[in-house]
Design brief:
CATH architecture: Alpha-Beta Complex
Number of helices: 9
CATH topology: Spore Coat Polysaccharide Biosynthesis Protein SpsA, Chain A
Strand content: 15-25%
Radius of gyration: 18 Å
Structural class: alpha/beta
Number of domains: 1
CATH class: Alpha Beta
Largest sheet: 7 strands, mixed
Order of helices and strands: EHEHEHEEHEHEHHHEEEEEEH
């Protein structure tokens, strides 16, 4: 029921796997939001088991939500359940392996111009929009929208509910959905692909932003000049400002390499916000 939901908040997923501790990664993300936002929005995280999850999540998140298991092709398909899982009428979803580097609450006014708003391009460390053709040939060849689901806004409406159900159907019927698409035979089901196909099916391509924001820095070879964090010069200046290669970042950082998140870095952020 919408009447039981809060108005606006940020949400991430932290579904631990055998080789990745997404709960610790989500903890670091939440700390980065608290550090950079003057008026921190409500924060929510989706976990597999709220009783057995990392205990610190209950301290840094306003809502720890337990996943409702169902038959899925992979964990990415649970993204289609966001309207059911989110405690907010308006949700800004982040990948957990991100850091907020500045207060982006100003984006709220832009988000609210639409019921659904996806990132349509990514940036390098200089915060310049980059050519992502190398990784996006499959979308561009099929004239599909260039969706990055790492950061997007969704308001609960009949239209967005229909969209999420359509995306879920794309996941569930992946082989049939892609058989007429060029180059898709080599890709496993993913959220970016499924969301792009669903948007095209519903003629909702205008939900992908081509403006400067929303966007984020995507640390991936070919997008950023360097993607190995052992070779990247970075620091947290004045216990608040993330500087990479001499540039103070303002866009969210998708650091991608999960080993970037360490207990030492978590401790540094905790110290910075005084917890």
């Amino acid at each position: 029921m919408l009447s039981n939901k809060e108005q606006y908040g940020y949400l991430t997923y932290a579904l631990n796997s055998d080789d990745t501790d997404y709960e610790s990664i989500a903890h670091l993300w939440a700390l980065s939001v608290k550090l950079t936002h003057k008026h921190c929005p409500s924060l929510a995280v989706v976990v597999k088991d709220k009783q057995k999850c990392r205990s610190s999540l209950h301290k840094v998140f306003d809502h720890v939500i337990e996943l409702q298991p169902r038959d899925v092709v992979n964990n990415m398909q649970y993204e289609c359940d966001i309207l059911k899982l989110s405690p907010y009428k308006e949700t800004v979803k982040f990948e957990s392996d991100m850091l907020c580097t500045s207060d982006i609450m100003i984006w709220q006014k832009y988000f609210r111009l639409r019921d659904l708003c996806f990132t349509g391009h990514v940036c390098n460390f200089k915060q310049e929009i980059v050519d992502d053709t190398k990784y996006r040939k499959y979308l561009k060849t099929n004239l599909l929208p260039n969706v990055y689901q790492g950061l997007y806004y969704v308001r609960t409406t009949r239209q967005t509910d229909k969209f999420m159900k359509t995306a879920n159907s794309v996941f569930a019927n992946w082989n049939n959905e892609i058989k007429n698409l060029r180059m898709f035979d080599r890709f496993e089901p993913s959220t970016d692909f499924a969301f792009s196909i669903a948007l095209d099916k519903l003629a909702m391509n205008n939900c992908v932003s081509n403006d400067m924001f929303p966007s984020f820095i995507h640390v991936k070879e070919g997008i950023t000049k360097e993607a190995d964090w052992d070779l990247i010069t970075w620091s947290l200046i004045q216990n608040k400002y993330l500087v990479v290669g001499g540039t103070r970042l303002s866009l969210p950082l998708h650091y991608f390499d999960k080993s970037f998140c360490t207990e030492k870095l978590i401790g540094q952020y905790e110290e910075a916000i005084g917890i």
